[in-house]
Amino acid sequence: MGTPITPGPADSDLVRAARGLPVSRTPVWFMRQAGRSLPEYRTLRAGTAMLQACQDPDMVTEITLQPVRRHGVDAAILFSDIVLPLVVAGVDIEIKPGIGPVVANPVRTVADVDALPPLEPDRLDFLVTAVRQLVAELGPTPLIGFAGAPFTLATYLIEGGPSKEHARTKAFMYSEPAAWQRLLEHLAVSAAVFLRAQIGAGVSAVQLFDSWAGVLSATDYAQRVLPHSREVFDGLGDTDVPRIHFGVGTGELLSLIGDAGADMVGVDWRIPLDEAARRVGPGFSLQGNLDPAVLLADRATVDREVARVVAQGRAARGHVFNLGHGVLPDTDPGVLTHVVELVHELGRR
What is the pLDDT of residues 249-279, one digit of tens each? Predict the structure, then answer.
């Protein structure tokens, strides 16, 4: 008998689930698994600023691999940050500990929009190097690349940093419609350039994070934001990798989000996956959606909630288990490993 052939990343359970194909078990990975809760991550990052770390191929490689080694997850997620394309293009942004991205000169006028520098592909050599190193190290385990969606990046640029109300962003959207359109078109091109570099270097899937789209009404999302998310996916051309689209608080937008062009829709913890499957429609796989706070609870609660998510995920054409948002920094890494094992056990039944 010959040696069994190990499936490559293009035939992994994650990619198959995203395409709605049969899988050997429910695949699982965690948003923000690269870093946050791992002591080995904190040791490696000590003394290195976040945006500096994201542009160091060797550091990106090691941080991305850490949760794969420790937890046995079914995919790696590239260690990066959604504002990185803006920084590489030349926008002055600093990620301040305990705060998040802070923009030195926020976009507040039409002139500010027109002054934004484009992202040139030749400035992404560090990213290409990191992805190639990771693909070589990961073997059959798929690597997920990602970028921030135009609306979410626009909120950081206009607000100058994280915001709860996003009031300045909405005011600009309403009062300067032409400049708003140019801004989001600019950011859509940037995101597509960033993702194409990752795809060309070998990632097996990509995720577009529209973290703050949930602050919008369905009408505003459909008219003023969705077309630009679609531009990002359209900008990837005929590259044949699954596309994931994720937002927070987007339960009321789920019937629209699929129209952007994703194969799989990420769902936060606010809505059960079986209801999400009904809203999104039969043509999409789902990713999610355990509340990250559950991982801080007792083991019986964790097991019950994981089983619920796995069961409800069967309502979709394909399901990738994940959290409804990122891993919280105080999460016990041992709980994450346990969840991976439990999902694999339940997902075989």
Answer: 999 999 999 899 999 999 999 999 999 999 9
b/e map 166-197, b = 16+ CB within 10 Å: bebbbebbeebeebbeebbebbbbbbbbbbbb
Active site residue 58: no
Give the per-residue pLDDT at 35. 80
The confidence score (pLDDT) of residue 2 equals 57
Pick the CATH number of 9-347 from 3.40.50.720, 2.60.40.420, 3.90.1150.10, 3.20.20.210: 3.20.20.210
- Residue 343 is inside which H or E element, if any? helix 333-347
For the chain, give every domain's residue range.
9-347
Is 45 catalytic? The answer is yes
Answer yes or no: 19 catalytic: no
Given 74, 81, 263, 268, the catalytic residue = 81
Active-site residue flag, 123: no
Active-site residue (options: 32, 196, 224, 279): 32
pLDDT(5) > 70: no
pTM of the model: 0.95
